[in-house]
Amino acid sequence: MIRRGHVALRRRAVPVGLGVVGALALGIVGLAGALAPAHAQSWWPFGGNDEPARPVPREPVYRQPPPAPAPQAQPQPGPGGTNWATRNPICLQLEQRLVQEGQKGSQSRDALAQVEAERNQVDRAFNVGASKLDANCYETFLFTRSFRNTPQCKELAKQVEVSKRRLAELEAQRQDLASGRSYQDDIIRELARNNCGANYADQARRRDNSGMWSEEGEISTNNWTPYGSTGETYRTVCVRLCDGYYFPVSFSTLPSHFAQDAEVCSSKCAAPAQLYYYRNPGGTMDQAVALQSNDPYTKLKSAFRYRKEYVNGCSCKEAEYVPTTTAADQKAETSKSQPITTGSTTPAPTPAATTSNQEGAQSSGWEAQSIPPSEGD
Questions:
Q1: How far is CA 102 from CA 89, 108, 340, in A?
Q2: 265 pLDDT exceeds 90?
Q3: Closest alpha carbon to 308 in 161, 199, 177
Q4: What pLDDT shows up at residue 94?
Q5: Phi, psi of 201 (to 5 degrees)
Q6: What CA–CA distance (Å, rounded) separates 251 from 281?
Q7: Cα–Cα distance between 113 and 40 in angstroms, integer?
Q8: Residue 277, SS3?
Q9: Measured distance CA(15)–CA(235) in Å, rounded
């Protein structure tokens, strides 16, 4: 009985439990319906949104602004802190020429020393041979001078001629090498004149103060003319008329400065010299024209003579220059040295003998008489 009653009670409790469960289910469904908007907004923490939630930063993050782009590298200004390349294009051309001259200068200095040593040796041999040839191989009869046609004299004359030709070649090489060194000085002065940099002005000042004379071919001048910004420019050279040798005066100048260069030319050479000019760049010495006569250099009798032979006494140095005398000068000197004679063997009367106080003439000629002083003296 007790078991049956317990079963009956259990059966009665089942409907009650089902009712409670149904109520709970309805409550859960209602709550889910109320929370549907929040679930649509992904607030509901138990799912419903496939996107991962972004982490909330604990502290605000301060980021620095991106760095500014680096400025483009500007070309370095030329010497003196000024962009001379855009202001004066001639500075770039002169610097390129200066580099070329510097490369040639390092090679020419070594070659110049060798050429000068050989030239001095050949010059001594030429002088010795010429002296022997003049003393032993010529015969003088009346007003004629004939060569002794002996084997020894022929060989000696041949040696002297070879030495003479070699001396002319070495002299031409020496002049070319030496004149090449002066171009570098000229370019530096041009750079200074065109305000291409303070360092060029300092170098030009030091070179001008170092001295005007060192050797022939190294003649420089401190009377420099500026490069013209417009128009054609010219190179002026000083030509030595006795052998045609020339050295630069202005590397690049204008016709308005030719007169100044002519004065420099005449003052820098003891031998007679004239100023010639030709277009630069583009011209050569074959196209040079004389400033005074406008005659080409190639028509000069002594044009390029220094390349063929060595002319004694022809030098721009005062100590080495020997002026030549012409036939007219020799005739004038001879006429001055001859005494003046009269028809008799007695000398010509002196001015003192022709005064009014002469007492008479002697048979041996005029006799000068002294004038007694007056009482007032």
A1: 21, 10, 67
A2: yes
A3: 161
A4: 82
A5: -65, -40
A6: 10
A7: 103
A8: strand
A9: 132
- Find the helix or strand (DSSP H, E) in which 25 lies: helix 2-34
265-283 as b/e: b if 16+ CB within 10 A: beebbbbebbbbbbebeee
Query: At a CB cut-off of 8 Å and minimum separation 6, what does 196 contact?
Result: 78, 79, 80, 84, 88, 91, 94, 95
157 token code pair: 């004359």
The pLDDT value given to residue 272: 94
Give CA–CA dist 91/191, Å, rounded: 6
Residue type, 209: N
- Residue type (1 letter), 161: E
Q: Quote the DSSP letter at residue 16.
A: H
Question: DSSP per residue over 67-114, as a string?
Answer: PPPPPPPPPPP-TTSS-HHHH-THHHHHHHHHHHHHHHHHHHHHHHHH
Residues of the chain with CATH 1.10.287: 85-212
Residue 190 exposure: Cα atoms within 13 Å on the Cβ side: 28
Residue written as tokens 């390129």? 96
Instruction: Tokens for 109, please give them.
Output: 């200095």
Residue 177: which H helix or E strand, with range? helix 151-193
Nearest to 246 by CA among 319, 184, 293, 305: 305
- At 273, which helix (H) or strand (E)? strand 273-279
CA 162, CA 165: separation in Å to the nearest integer? 5
Tell me the C-alpha to C-alpha distance, in Å, between residue 8 and each of 2, 20, 138, 218, 246.
10, 19, 179, 145, 150
Helices and strands, number each (H, E), in the chain: 8, 6
In angstroms, the CA 201 to CA 82 distance is: 14
pLDDT digits (tens, 9 = 90+) for 76-130: 544 444 444 445 678 888 877 877 776 666 666 778 888 888 988 998 888 888 8
Closest alpha carbon to 179 in 248, 95, 262: 248
CATH architecture of 85-212: Orthogonal Bundle (1.10)
What confidence score (pLDDT) does residue 367 get?
A: 44
Q: Which residues contact 373 (CB under 8 A, 6 or more apart)?
A: none
Let me know: does 96 contact 148? Beta carbons within 8 Å: no
